């Protein structure tokens, strides 16, 4: 088991860490990405995406049950041998770091556009790097506790969107299955990756205090994510037409512009100020997973020396080239393809190979 074996996660911390890792940038853009089918068709496609993620997540848990005290960085070399296993570990490290970087860059871009357009990008980046550094330095248990706190202080946020339904058109949801089932199934390639974040189970499971509750915790986290996605989709499609949604970059945030109170202007600024906490919780677990992988490869006890180095690389990105929204979109599309290959395909192969590995091991026993 990893050196941090004295660290344990409660089922609640396990659940909310997965949930907050899943809920990130996707909820802000998914209404626009599914606008071609919209209405109930998008709801159905999103539900199928949840089902795909649920199945893959249960495969992950099954693999971990056979290796309860090991992370993915010990499992891969054990199953595939030293060289292939370590090569796959490197792929997983790069994948985790790529996801963390894309989420961070997108978050900084959102803050620059919506809240602080005149603030230098590197200062906004620095304001994120400091709490990320502190959480990673404190370790996995601190991340789990922060996930619990993040859930409690942001639980009110989806309810605010209900106010925007005042002049909504419920007929926008009709007709149901207007283009047949084929488009619904085709868009699963967009809805399933929206639930990514469950792969963090590969590093959380060994530290889970009650491992028998892993499946329950994951099911709750994945279902909470589905509820939030369906909530945002329904409100966007009721309030906006297809043409309006196509014109928006962040449709979910545009809902907030419709909400006005006599005592408050620009609700989206307050909303985003709290949503930053959720975005932060999407970056930290992936970053932690990548650093853990480096430690396992080089047999380091702590990731502290590498942590400031990576944070410094993030900090100088705005000086080299400040990514525009379109840069982030292109990177995001490439990342989605990579996630489909690395997470969905690699997890399935790992699950099938685990069966073969155990069968082969039994055959060798005289």
TrEMBL record:
<feature type="transmembrane region" description="Helical">
    <location>
        <begin position="148"/>
        <end position="165"/>
    </location>
</feature>
<feature type="transmembrane region" description="Helical">
    <location>
        <begin position="83"/>
        <end position="108"/>
    </location>
</feature>
<feature type="transmembrane region" description="Helical">
    <location>
        <begin position="114"/>
        <end position="136"/>
    </location>
</feature>
<dbReference type="InterPro" id="IPR004761">
    <property type="entry name" value="Spore_GerAB"/>
</dbReference>
<feature type="transmembrane region" description="Helical">
    <location>
        <begin position="340"/>
        <end position="360"/>
    </location>
</feature>
<keyword id="KW-0813">Transport</keyword>
<dbReference type="GO" id="GO:0009847">
    <property type="term" value="P:spore germination"/>
</dbReference>
<keyword id="KW-0472">Membrane</keyword>
<keyword id="KW-0812">Transmembrane</keyword>
<dbReference type="GO" id="GO:0016020">
    <property type="term" value="C:membrane"/>
</dbReference>
<feature type="transmembrane region" description="Helical">
    <location>
        <begin position="269"/>
        <end position="291"/>
    </location>
</feature>
<comment type="similarity">
    <text>Belongs to the amino acid-polyamine-organocation (APC) superfamily. Spore germination protein (SGP) (TC 2.A.3.9) family.</text>
</comment>
<keyword id="KW-1133">Transmembrane helix</keyword>
<dbReference type="Pfam" id="PF03845">
    <property type="entry name" value="Spore_permease"/>
</dbReference>
<keyword id="KW-0309">Germination</keyword>
<feature type="transmembrane region" description="Helical">
    <location>
        <begin position="219"/>
        <end position="240"/>
    </location>
</feature>
<protein>
    <submittedName>
        <fullName>Spore gernimation protein</fullName>
    </submittedName>
</protein>
<feature type="transmembrane region" description="Helical">
    <location>
        <begin position="42"/>
        <end position="63"/>
    </location>
</feature>
<feature type="transmembrane region" description="Helical">
    <location>
        <begin position="185"/>
        <end position="207"/>
    </location>
</feature>
<feature type="transmembrane region" description="Helical">
    <location>
        <begin position="303"/>
        <end position="320"/>
    </location>
</feature>
